[in-house]
Sequence to fold (342 residues):
Amino acid sequence: MRVGVLTGGGDCPGLNAVIRAVVRKGVQEYGHDFIGFRDGWRGPLEGRSVPLDIPAVRGILPRGGTVLGSSRTNPLKEEDGVRRIKDTLARLRVDALVTIGGEDTLGVAARLSDEFQVPCVGVPKTIDNDLSATDYTFGFDTAVGIATEAIDRLHTTAESHMRVLVVEVMGRHAGWIALHSGLAGGANVILIPEQRFDIEQVCAWVASRFRSSYAPIVVVAEGAMPRDGDVVLKDGSLDSFGHVRLSGVGEWLAKEIERRTGNEARTTVLGHVQRGGTPSAFDRWLATRFGLHAVDAVHEGDFGTMVALRGTDIVRVPIAEATARLKTVDPALYAEAGVFFG
Ligand code: F6P
Fold:
C-alpha cells in the first residue's frame, strides 16, 4: 500500500512526531511505503510531494513545526479541487491519505472520504485543544507550558513596577490555553471567548489585587469579547476557510484598565511563540501514539475515521462527528477559577 501524509492548518508542536510514528510503524510492521505532500491540501492539489521513508524521519521527533510544511488551503474552494486531488493520488499511485490537522483540514478530509471516496484517516492537532471527540490534542500542552512560563516571568516584572500586565494568548473560539495557563501561572483575571467579560468587573479585580500589595496579571484569550463589543481584529483579512485574523484585545484591555483605574498597564502578546519550538514530553507521547494508531486504521482500511484520546486509550471516531462541533470551556469549569480572581 502507498500512503500519503499531509499536515494542514496552523502548525503545532508534535506534527513531526506523528509523521515519524506513521512512517516507522507503517514501513516496519506493515511494509507500506509513504509519500509526503507539501503544505497541507495544496500538496495533493498541485501535485507537490516529497519522498517519506525511515531515513527521512530520523531525528525529527523533538523538532517543532512540520517537515512537510503547512497551509490553510481549502481544496473545496478551488476550481476542480476534488478532481485535481484525485488525479494526483492516481498519478502517484497513492491508496490512502493520513491527514493531520484541526477542524478545517479534517473537515475537508471528512467530506473527501464520505462524499468523494478519497480514503482518509485523520489525526487531530491544534494548540487550541478545541476539537471535540478527543480529550486532548497535541500541541496544547506545549502551548500551555510556554504561556505559563511567560506568566511566571511577568509576575516579577509586574511587581517591581506595580503595573498591570495583560497577557494575550491564542484561542480563537475556546479559552483552553488561557484557562490552563492562567490557573497554572496564578493569574488574577482570566478572560475566555466563551464568556463575555464586564470591563468594570475586570477593573474591580485589578484594584482588589493592588490592595493586597501585589500586581495583577490578566490573561486574555485573543477571541475574548467585552459584554458590549466584538472581537478585536488584527486586520480585515480572511483565510480560505473564512477565518478573520484576531489579536488586539490585550492592547485594548490595557488601555481601558489604565483609563478607568489610573494604574499603569502593559500588554504582552505571546502569539506564535506558543506554536513554535520543541514539543513537550506529553505532546511527543500523544502525537506518537496518534501516529501509531492512525497507521493501524489505514492498514485496516478504516477510512473516514480520526484517532482520538479518551482517558489513556486511543480510539477511532468518525471524522465528520469530530469536526461537527467545537469543544469549548464549560461554564462550570471556568467558574472554578473564579476563586483566584482579584
Ligand atoms: O491554530 C489555531 C490558532 O492557533 C488560533 O488560536 C489562532 O487564531 C490562529 O491559529 C492564528 O494562526 P495564523 O497566524 O497561522 O493564521
